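REQUEST FORM: STRUCTURE PREDICTION
Request ID: SP-0412
Submitted by: Lab K.M.
Chain count: 1
Length (residues): 60
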Amino acid sequence: MMVLALSCILVLTMGGCVCVWWAARGGPRWTRAVSAATLAAGELARRASRYDRNPSGGDD
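STATUS: Completed
RESULT:
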């Protein structure tokens, strides 16, 4: 079950990366929407990771 969940996450991530690449080259409107969602999710993950490493909230 865990392998299935991780496989789905991997496929979604790869699809998001393809949409970011395609939207940067002038793809259809739906690729721009998917790429915006992918970039926003990546930014949220990056911020969450930053806060996990530095619980005080300040930058080093």
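NOTES: The chain is about 80% helix and 0% strand.
Reviewed by: T.R.
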